[in-house]
Amino acid sequence: MNSPDTPICSAKGCRTAAVWVLAWNNPKLHTPERRKTWLACEEHREHLSQFLGVRGFLKDVVVLAEWEEPEAPPTGS
Question: Would you list the domain boundaries of the chain?
């Protein structure tokens, strides 16, 4: 069972924990640098990627753990 703060897959009706982030934008609505996100479990990653891809919206697919990592502060002085 997922905890209330576990990211859930964006596929309709899916309640599985997300593993992937699909970054996308609709060029008719969003500026080029804007990124919207969908979350995907292993089972739905390909389907959601294809849905966005055929529309030309998909920009990147990243493992959720990597997407959430904060940027490291600069080192040195």
Answer: 20-66
